[in-house]
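Listing 4. Sequential folding, example run.
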Amino acid sequence: MEENAERIAIVSDGREYSYRMLADAVRAEEARLAAANIGPGHVVALIGEFSFAALACMLALFFRKATVVPLTREAHAKLGKYVEQLGVDFLIDTYAPAEAAIQPAAAQETKGAQASSDWRSILPGDTGGLIVFTSGSTGVPKAIVHNIDSLCYRYLDKKEPLSSICFLLFDHMGGINTVLFLLFRGGTAVNVAERQVDIVCQAVQKYRCQLLPTTPSFLSQLLMSRAYASYDLSSLQVVSYGTEVMSEAVLKKMNEVLPGCVFKQTYGLSETGVLQIKSRSNDTLWFKFIDAGVQSKVEDHILWIKTQSNLLGKVLFTEQGLKLEENSHEWFCTNDLVETDGEYLMILGRQTDIINVGGLKVYPSEVENCIHELPFVDDVFVKAKKHPMLGQIVVAYILQNGTLEKAEAERLIKRHCLARMEKFKVPSQFIFNWENFVNDRFKKVRSP
């Protein structure tokens, strides 16, 4: 941090903080943590966002070789019972006054207290640790334990500084990746109060951000709002997108409205961190792994990965108590369905996304891409609906951008789909009452 002392490290709450200020704050936090006897072997739940105070505290905890569980306020409210089951040692609320921020966690009083602490055997002793929760969208979340030093090997090469919006959340592996990526290269992390289109675009314009790491759902909202015409986004050099399948139609439209920008797909999991990949071109969803620490293979259209692992293990929350799955350094099943073309891959979706129509598989992304080609469609969302005869049918939610009658719109969409896809893939039902299918992490939720 000292070599970039005068550069802006963080923008938060309308204030700019230099690397010198950040270094001073980290040293002060280290002293405060030392006074509270927080260090190696301790697990600390850290509540905050990408604010100056929260980042200084997170870095200080890593330097103190503690293991950090970053949580937003919303995540803490949702995952609090799992945090308690982990038996964290301290809770630090960066929204609270400094004198009240550090609180020892309540002692574990359950009869399974000893068993619940067995998972700590995997905690690193000579470096800091990081615990992130899986989303739990398909069930109970898991706690993923990482070695922070191993996680940082991808950031060691010296590169030019740049400024970026911190879009992905404080407790999201992609959000942590963005901040580490920026700080290692002397860049500027711009924290936004909310992930609304206007607020993000305003921050890009004001701070001349060069990178916007985001999700396909947010880019779709950006197109619908036409905010690109209201704000100066010319500083953007790279828009990276991940966490869910991108629509080819959305990617094509984004290339049209931001023609000087590179659109870069990202790929990562809570278990692996964000991996280095390269897109075949700016307007395609095909990519290949270029991460020296990654091997990949495809079996039955499912992607498997083996990494230079920063994963120490997973903690599972079961009815019998906590269960530790240590990292076996073997192949990891991503549950992502892919197509292959030589060394290139294209993500089709998660196994759980597949719609089974009478035994025939339908990928929602394929149907969405087809419907999105129509000029009167602003957005489309495809999901399964239970059916007594076929098991499931395909349902499409349509958001129009004009005044076309619904019956006429449905006729045109069906004709377009039948000309490009097998009949069983064509939606059986069209719903023109648009709903919000995007969760608080700006990902579409397809649960039937």
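-- end of first protein; second protein begins --
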Amino acid sequence: MRAIVVGAGKLGFEISRLLAAEGHDIVVIDNEEEALNEVTNNLDVLAIHGNGASPKVLERAGIDETDLLMAVAGPDEVNIIACLAAKRRKVPVCAARVRNEEYLAGEDPSFTQQQLGIDVVVNPERAAALEIARLLKTPTATQVDYFAGGRVSLVRLKVEQDAPITRGPLREVRPQRCVVAAVVRDEEILIPDGETVIHAGDKIYIAGKTGSFPEIRSLVGSPARPLREITIVGGGRVGFPLAQILTRGQRRGVEIKLIEKDPDRCNELAAALPGVLIICGDGAKPEVLREEMVDRSDAFVATSGDDAINLLATIAAKQLGVRQAIVELSREDYVPLAERAGADASVVPRLITASTLLKLSRRDEVVHLSLLEEGRAAAVELVVEEGSRAVGERLEDLPRIQGAIVGAVVRGDEVIIPKGATQIRAQDHLVLFGTVEALDKVQDLFRV
């Protein structure tokens, strides 16, 4: 597949890295030499200096032979014009990062999107807000993903001391209604089997039918924690949509506080968020958090847009005794630092968006893809093709691919927690988990 990536910033670099690793022919366009040098020095791609919205530059990039264009430059206008130009040259799929929702406003946003030549719109900050809202909806989880139209959940949890799941190898513990899809131990990703023993302190991914979270939580020893008060630091591109999402689905008795240090922005937030208590102050300062009694909050979310401020605010909140802290980060290599700072979960908008865009490069049978563990692992939902090797076979009879596991089988409306004797049928939806390298191999079993 041939793809053009417009924009060599953090998101453009990440997408180009992932696509190049899969062997695709990638062209990256940017008008910043420094950004292009970072790409050419680290990736096996063709780099072109120029404006990605220019038809002449797109011609130099080989737009007429391109299968996919991803426009993720800084300005929305560049991304929109790049997609318009690409669609006129018959590029099959065009995706654009659009932060300003006014460009897609109207009675029929999908029609507006089509008129702009955009097949897929991504907004990293709104995607991050949705991810944080999911985490708050599932207390004690440090990551939540949904598959098969929301019928299957994949949750990441930390295993507590003396948790039931630590009482022997998995073949003896025999978790019901779920599959332990992976174990993260000392930064290493392990795909478990029946002999694997889970340790306290491990982070584990568990796949199961949506709605079975109370049972899953009891396996790892996490107590049920009601959510009565949430504090958000930062009313910018992530904090503001997060507050909107939380107030739309606000349960009775849940108080939301938002701390923002810009007085003008505070006035705007107060007008736009009538159900939220807006506090004007510096959320990175312990005295401000102490004065606003943040220690009473059940969850604390740092979304200032500045990694250093978010980390400082998280440290201060944890020292005050906040139980759950979620931090927004611009870089995945800061995640270990956030964990040491006390963060229970880290959200990297760029990685969430990269998951969405990477799916566009996959074949049609891939329904959903989610990058995990800073992009080192992934969860994929795919449809089993008629005539593929796996059809009619039991899972235990298929070749075992080291580093990959089937987490769930969805057949019609039925969610099947797979066992070795589970037989695969054509048109089954499978949720696979594994390292990126292993998933590429295991998917071939379900393709023609």
